[in-house]
Design a protein that fits this description.
Low-confidence stretches: 1-32
Oligomer: single chain
Largest sheet: 7 strands, mixed
Strand order of the largest sheet: 1-9-8-5-4-2-3
Mean pLDDT: 93
Distance between the termini: 13 Å
Length: 437
């Protein structure tokens, strides 16, 4: 703590010498003008474009919100949306569903996961991922995540050896962060495991020039409100595998001859007798959800650029002002990101008590900061009582205790992010000051 004390006093001395300078380190130094408070809502979602509102209104007027309630030769709004999503990601087949969790569950079933089969997945992900494995009848086995918040390839290799019967690896691109997909794929191939991708957070993210979701056999994206496209709830299964696409359409609810009303699925020869052999889960997306999604696809790249520009400014400011106390996860070489949220790891010279004090300070000044390792956080594997970890996960557990998360709402103004940095810095300085009392 001696090193921490010296840095604190040096920092405050610097402030006292520069309170009249426009280059002062803090936007609102504690020693002068008081604390910054954020009044904007951190959970502000992206609004639906006017075109989506209008199409949704016309659907409600007609009552034709069911995707299959269309005239012969007509494409439903869902089918049009599927074509546009597939064109954006570069996949051949696309099936729209009611959630990304449903897409993950179905992809497990469509790739021959049997009841009781083990499936490897990230130890750091959202609880919906192990839930989907459980709903598919599988047993989740967790692979360590590292301090860049991605799957640890060394531990993946270890777990593939420990669990030779595990023939599914579901890699989750948590918060849009992509691991070494080439190494992950090579490990899966060596052990005869099918690689699947949870791309809920990685719409617009690329791996070596190709949209995420192409290294694995099947992938899933999300249109839940806090993702890059917002329909409240929704998801899409994406693949180039015709059998998987046909099975997914049937599982989702394409009974009788309704598969013929899809566009981004294979021909009837692939479906065969699937409609009579596969149970229907009724997980279809509605025309209403598809209507609000469609115009958002057109602005994905524009919005991604804006997110990344703001992220670069925020992280640069944090590294300059608090670089001795935290680190920003590093993108895997070959990844082109979309940073619609901010994460960092507190350093070892910050105690767990100080982290809790910091979270409290931020919340009291209008900025809810989440700690991934909090006892109630759904991204903390200790809270997955429905799919508990059988093996120790010390690396992931240690990381989660220091990993923080903040959204970067698109609808905020640029100056709001200056205030975000001020609250984060001021809150940490307040913690340092209190630690000396």
């Amino acid at each position: 703590m001696a090193s921490l004390n010296f840095k604190k006093y040096a920092f405050l001395m610097f402030l006292s010498l520069s309170v009249n300078s426009s280059d002062a380190l803090l936007t609102n130094p504690l020693t002068t003008t008081g604390r910054t408070f954020i009044s904007r809502d951190i959970k502000t979602p992206d609004p639906v474009p006017v075109a989506g509102q209008e199409e949704a209104l016309e659907l409600m007027k007609s009552g034709r919100m069911y995707r299959y309630n269309i005239s012969p030769g007509e494409d439903s709004v869902v089918s049009k949306c599927e074509q546009e999503i597939a064109a954006y990601t570069g996949h051949k087949y696309c099936i729209a569903l009611n959630s990304c969790g449903s897409a993950i569950m179905i992809m497990m079933k469509c790739t021959s996961l049997k009841p009781g089969d083990q499936a490897l997945s990230n130890a750091f992900t959202f609880g919906a991922v192990p839930s989907a494995i459980e709903h598919a009848g599988g047993k989740a086995v967790y692979v360590e995540s590292d301090y860049n918040h991605v799957m640890d390839v060394t531990d993946l290799e270890k777990k593939l050896v420990m669990y030779p019967d595990a023939k599914h690896v579901l890699v989750s691109h948590m918060r849009g962060k992509v691991g070494d997909m080439d190494a992950i794929k090579e490990a899966c191939d060596r052990h005869g495991a099918t690689l699947l991708e949870d791309c809920a957070h990685s719409l617009g993210v690329y791996w070596k020039g190709t949209h995420t979701g192409h290294v694995g056999r099947v992938s899933a994206i999300s249109s839940q409100s806090y993702k890059m496209i917002n329909s409240g709830e929704g998801g899409f299964l994406l693949t180039d595998d015709p059998e998987v696409a046909a099975m997914c359409a049937v599982y989702a609810g394409a009974y009788e001859g309704l598969a013929g009303k899809h566009v981004t699925v294979p021909g009837p020869e692939v479906f065969g007798d699937m409609p009579t052999k596969i149970p229907k889960d009724s997980l279809r997306m509605s025309n209403l959800a598809a209507a609000v999604i469609r115009p958002q696809i057109l602005t994905l790249d524009e919005r991604a650029a804006k997110y990344n520009e703001r992220y670069a400014k925020v992280t640069a400011a944090l590294e300059e002002k608090l670089g001795d106390y935290l680190s920003i996860p590093v993108n895997t070489p070959g990844m082109k990101p979309v940073h619609d949220s901010l994460q960092w790891n507190f350093s070892e010279n910050v105690s767990e008590e100080q982290i809790q004090m910091f979270l409290k300070e931020c919340a009291e000044h209008g900025l809810p900061v989440e700690l991934f390792g909090h006892k109630s956080n759904a991204r903390n594997f200790i809270n997955w009582g429905f799919a508990p970890a059988d093996d120790p996960l010390p690396q992931t557990g240690a990381m989660l205790k220091r990993a923080c998360d903040v959204r970067l709402p698109l609808m905020w103004d640029d100056e709001d992010f200056d205030e975000m940095v001020s609250v984060l810095v001021e809150s940490f300085e307040a913690v340092l000051a209190k630690s000396e009392e």
